[in-house]
Amino acid sequence: MSKQIAIVTGGGAGLGLAITKKLVSEGIHVIMIGRNEENLKTAAAEFGQLCSYKAFDLQNLKEIPALIDEINTEYAKIDILVNNAGINMKKHFIEVTDDDFASVIQTNLSSVFAISREVVKKMIPAGNGCIINISSMAAQYDIPKVIAYSAAKTGVEGMTRAMATELSPLGIRINCVAPGFIKTAMSAKALDADPERKNKVFSRTPMGKMGEPEDIAEAVYFFCSVGAKYVTGVVMPVDGGNSIGF
Fold first, then answer.
1. Which residue from 91, 186, 196, 197 lies 20 to 30 Å from 68 (Cα-Cα)?
2. How far apart are CA 35 and CA 225, in angstroms?
3. Domain assignment present for 203
4. Active site residues
5. Is residue 115 domain-resident?
6. Is the residue at 188 inside a domain?
7. For the sheet containing 129-134, what is the strand order?
8. Which residues cross the membrane (predicted)?
9. Does pLDDT of 232 surpass 90?
10. Which of the four pLDDT bands, split at 50, 70 and 90, describes residue 162?
11. 3-class DSSP state for residue 59?
């Protein structure tokens, strides 16, 4: 019971994998949630007894309560939730369909609300808990051709502050990490095919380089740690200065 229990959505790849690895290295048991069971299985095997997974599509909002009930029953408590799972879609504004928009909003915003609500129900009786949301530079300033993603991540940041105001008196801290441009398969796919955008990223990043997934993992762990016990409602860019660059 003394071991902390964390849920990391999208925990089997990219930023989520780095976050999972960091939390496990700090002795926290991580339950990864994701759609790709092969990725999850591989990660769980690599990280050992402190890592397990649930294959689940977070777009299935109606089944989220049962999923969290199952995890809480199995592990007796939930101390940490990292809302990392997300999808992106690069399209001109007028080409984005209602279904396109709804799909991105459902995965990146609605599921964050739904899973947080269910986890908070388990945290309230314990009188403590920690939720870390993952935002994006798309909520810090305009990025063209990602209208749905921008709307969702802006919503995540607003929800972080609203949740913190309501839940912090109950002992539950809510914070948010806003990654800059980080070296992942998703960012490589987006930037390598768009040299103009890639050049713009580097030109407005004062540190002159992309970040590593581990940079995000360290920030997430800080918010989980005793070092952040008096920190709530914060959106922290981890971006090499990108959000304030010219």
1. 186
2. 28
3. no
4. 149
5. yes
6. no
7. 51-55, 29-34, 5-9, 80-83, 129-134, 172-179, 235-238
8. none
9. yes
10. very high
11. coil
